[in-house]
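Appendix B, Record 12. Input sequence as logged:
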Amino acid sequence: MLAVLPDLPGPVTVQARGSLVSLVSPRRTFAVLKPTTKSRVDLGLRLDTTQPGGRFQPARGLGQATVRIPLTTPGEVDDEVRA
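Logged structural output:
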């Protein structure tokens, strides 16, 4: 996920916070990465206009995130996740 950061518009700060990593824009935290199991990381996104469904699951325990995407391999970070 961190390899995608250079493609994002504007500055992004990576902040390690206990058991998760926050991705912060100048305005707010827009994403968090949290290891959930030995083989999965949850990407929590703050998407105010996106409802859980399909690949986007309800976010629980991920701060201000509104949806989460479970990731088990780097290959799952596809165009949909990047967008």
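The chain is about 5% helix and 40% strand.
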